[in-house]
Amino acid sequence: MGKKKLTPYLLIAPYIIHFGLFVAFPVVFSLVLVFHRWNIISPMEYVGPGNFIRLLGDTFFWQSVLNTLYFILIHVPLQLLIAISFALILNLPLRMLGVFRAIYFLPVVVSGVVVTILWQQLFGYENGILNRLLTYLTLPRIGWLTDPDIAMPSIAIMATWKNVGLYIILFLTGLQTVPVQLYESADLEGATAWQKFRHITIPMINPTILLVLVLSTIGGFSLFIEPYVMTGGGPLSRTLSSVLYIYKQGFFFYHMGYAATMGVTLTAIILVVVIIQKKYVERNT
Amino acid sequence: MKYIVLISVIFLSLSVFSCRENINERNGVLYWSSNNTDEITYARFIVEKWNRDNPGKQVRFQPVPEGQSSEEVILAAVVGGTTPDVYSNMWQGDVEYYARAGKLVALDTLEGFMDFLNARCDSAVIKEVTSRDGHIYQIPWKINPIMMIYNKKMLAKTGLKSPPRTYTEFLKMAGIIQKASLVGGRVTKWAGYAEVQVTWWQRWFDYYPLYLSASGGAKLVNADTAVFDNKYSVSTFAFLQKIFKNNYFPTDRLSSGQDPFLSGMIATRFTGPWEIVHAEKFKPEGFEYDFAPMPVPDDHSGPQYTYGDTKNLVIFKTCKNPLTAWYFLREFCRLENEAVFLKITNQLPRRKDLTSDPLFSNYFAANPLMIPFAKQARYVIGPDNSPVLKEVFDVISAEYEQCVVYSKKSPASAVKDAAHSANLVLMQ
Fold first, then answer.
1. Comparing C-alpha atoms, which of A246, A240, A236 is closest to residue A267?
2. Which of A144, A146, A241 to mutate to test the interface with B (most CBs of B within 10 A)?
3. Which of A136, B58, B291, B384 has the smallest set of CB atoms within 10 Å of its CB?
4. pLDDT tens digits, residue range B371-428?
5. In this structure, are residues B244 and B237 in contact, taking their beta carbons and an 8 Å threshold?
């Protein structure tokens, strides 16, 4: 093989090796694992559809899926609304815009574990900052992380704070691609600010909305660090996310086959949700 | 192309040379200790001593490589076939998992092992560490009994002359502390603290030692069957449920910021002897504390057992010189050496002569806070032999949370459901 023919292969080799080792192999291996029982140190044992049968009757897994969907239901719209609102503000010709943009982006680059530890100080029941504030205002304290009905919304608020900076940047980029002429024409026609937002801005940033929806939904399904550090999946398994449960089964109890089965099932669920989202957004904007 | 060939040759040569080096190293014994500083000091001491006395049977030592936990590192080593020959910090609950996978040497097949074990441990301990296949894969090495640490001054203020022994005494003390601590209707001090998270090993510090105390050391799992659906579990759950229901323990996590015990926020805690070093280092001036056995049901009689957080010595099957490894471990556990171990690490060797042999007496005379632990050492239990013990603790934890922390279930039904779930896990 000539040097010229070999060069392109050498150039793509690092990516191919990385892809093969860290993407293709794990995907194929997990598909093999779903039909096996394997505790890492003993030989694999073929169990046919045994893992799927176990999955159907596993109330913890289905509860974890519902918990994750509940999280997404709060987190995604909240994130979308806040991100669009702040992007619109940051798109205005304000002073120190760069500083504000950096500040909003800061939580994104801070480690998830650090963020959760910081928010624990806010959410503490007896001595948390939020409850101290409520006590000061003579209001009853809230079990932000200990009340089974409140814990997941609390985590959703924290996750939104952590990630919203990224989506603000994405929306800002989208907003800057909207041609100014469209707004000028609308102004000539006497359109109100809301009408311009509804009929120009939203349709023009539709691809960004779809991107943010898909990214934040997939991010929502990947919920792990926050419940792992803050609640361990409690109280009463209400913050047990699917990924946390898969992690527990795989890396605490070494049920690799079963964990792979849950992972594959979760992938299918994510795929269905994202397709529905895509169709909905495309139809309504 | 010739460059690729050249790089491949260099890579292969390096691999072969590194393998040759490993083969040479394999003539001795590789020993991993935990990465606890004191245990490393002891490991260095014993390895240097051994190597001086046995120049032909050298032992190489290194602390277990850094990882999220030593258990994870050991598992990775087993999977990768890079296990040490000897490991000195194996949690007893993990031994059955590795033994059933054929990764450990059956020590009872080695010459002189049973004589050694009979001299070291009483029959109950030997029975405890015997696997279901009848072999013994571990040397019971060290224990850290879980007991109740208490703030002497806080307890004195409640009018108690001695630490609470029974559930009723504990609840009475808790009520008095709570009442005295109310500020604007808000509780500011608690009788104690137990982690409310469902992490499986958190039950080593509440339910499990209390269950062992109440039951006289009963098992959770016997012959791959859950056996904890009994009156002792129910009474333990009921006791803890009363504590949380009355807000005697906070449901808030107190793990961050200042130490709640040393700062006087909590009067007691269920903990091990490691607390002494920490307390001595950070206690405020005038702070007084001591240790007492775990509380028991009011009608309890007989010895008060507790969980021992037992860590044991094992030899991996990958060991090329199991006899040398065994002789090294025998030296490791020799009376004189374990007296040094106790002095360096403040951890108790699991041996029946701990309180009777004069070699240990000097240490206890100099460290009176360790005496309750030494007395308790006769009555500790290690985890049962089950390859899925962590999951059993996990299902107990889930029911614990429902019943104890949130009062969503009665103690009897929570225990029954936990045993049912545990049996499903054990069947799988």
1. A246
2. A146
3. A136
4. 999 999 999 999 998 888 999 999 999 999 999 999 999 999 999 999 999 998 888 7
5. no
